[in-house]
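Need residues for this backbone.
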């Protein structure tokens, strides 16, 4: 009965929002949302910047934002309050809509002559999503199906992601553009990556010689962080012994976590509020994560990545994986003792070989030019009528 009520409410909202169909579509307007209005970030940000750099005189770029205070406005971008009347009008009259999630738009009545681009927010093939998750419901299936039906174009980071996630878990049968994730272009461009690393170091007052370890775990299904504390001091000592130099630990909590219990040492610096995760990846010399897709992004740099997964059995039960985690190319530690051992015994050549094999097995499609490629597609579509 509850799911029937949800369906009726959604149907009613979709019908009510069709009032905005009275307004004509603005053929040169592009609308962006990242993480349901929570951030100016991820793939939509990099597509937006590519459009602003190349087509700022021809296109109007609109972003939605949940907070009452908008961030510093990038050049050529206008912000609207998430789920305000202005938000619905701008979204439903934009020629192109760019999203990186499938959560908040099942109630939106998109129009046939709009282009809805779904970039998603993770690459590789790791934790299960969509219809493949163990706790999926009929309601989630219906909501996903409505969103997918309206989607015009899906971006993909690998052929395995296209086949298993986009076609399988999401049930999308439209056009897939296998050009990689726009947010990863910066990781594949040495000059841009170096500039990003300088911005991070400047933001936290680090010198150019400071070595940086980034700890970035994902959230759990119950909304918490990793249940076991990382031994930061021991890990930093291991990095110093294996790689040399003076080390600091940047901690990046998932945006869905209300607070973080991860700052476990005076050597930890909270980088959760830093506005761009990709720039943190550019600055990091080593990454420690768990089941987050940031491991795919970071693997493109060739720098060492380690998995710290003390709750592996529980996570496997709650979420599960597409590929067995033991087959990922990153050293897997369930305890601080194992993590210390893997860092100290790290071998670059072995790691490089395993990462390249992983990319080959998944059919890596990261091009380093995804943002400019999809920006041209958007510009051409806006000029097609």
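Answer:
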């Amino acid at each position: 009965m509850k799911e029937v009520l949800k369906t009726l409410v959604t149907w009613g909202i979709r019908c009510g929002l069709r009032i905005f169909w009275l307004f004509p579509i603005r053929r040169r307007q592009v609308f962006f949302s990242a993480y349901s209005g929570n951030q100016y970030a991820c793939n939509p940000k990099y597509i937006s910047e590519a459009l602003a750099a190349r087509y700022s005189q021809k296109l109007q770029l609109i972003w939605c934002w949940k907070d009452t205070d908008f961030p510093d406005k990038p050049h050529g971008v206008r912000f609207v309050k998430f789920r305000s009347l202005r938000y619905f009008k701008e979204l439903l009259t934009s020629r192109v809509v760019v999203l990186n999630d499938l959560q908040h738009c099942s109630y939106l009545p998109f129009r046939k002559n709009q282009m809805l681009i779904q970039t998603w927010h993770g690459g590789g093939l790791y934790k299960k999503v969509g219809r493949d998750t163990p706790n999926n419901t009929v309601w989630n299936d219906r909501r996903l199906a409505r969103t997918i039906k309206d989607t015009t174009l899906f971006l993909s980071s690998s052929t395995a992601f296209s086949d298993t996630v986009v076609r399988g878990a999401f049930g999308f049968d439209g056009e897939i553009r296998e050009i990689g994730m726009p947010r990863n272009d910066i990781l594949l461009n040495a000059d841009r990556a170096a500039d990003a690393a300088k911005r991070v170091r400047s933001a936290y007052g680090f010198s150019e010689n400071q070595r940086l370890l980034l700890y970035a775990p994902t959230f759990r299904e119950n909304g918490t962080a990793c249940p076991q504390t990382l031994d930061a001091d021991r890990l930093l000592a291991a990095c110093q012994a294996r790689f040399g130099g003076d080390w600091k630990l940047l901690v990046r909590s998932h945006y869905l976590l209300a607070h973080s219990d991860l700052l476990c040492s005076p050597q930890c610096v909270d980088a959760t509020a830093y506005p761009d995760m990709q720039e943190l990846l550019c600055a990091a010399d080593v990454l420690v994560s768990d089941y987050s897709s940031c491991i795919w992004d970071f693997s493109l740099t060739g720098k060492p990545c380690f998995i710290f997964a003390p709750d592996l059995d529980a996570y496997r039960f709650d979420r599960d994986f597409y590929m067995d985690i033991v087959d990922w190319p990153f050293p897997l530690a369930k305890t601080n003792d194992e993590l210390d051992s893997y860092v100290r015994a790290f071998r670059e050549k072995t790691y490089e070989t395993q990462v390249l094999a992983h990319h080959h097995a998944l059919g890596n499609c990261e091009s380093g030019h995804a943002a400019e490629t999809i920006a041209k597609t958007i510009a051409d579509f806006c000029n097609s009528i």
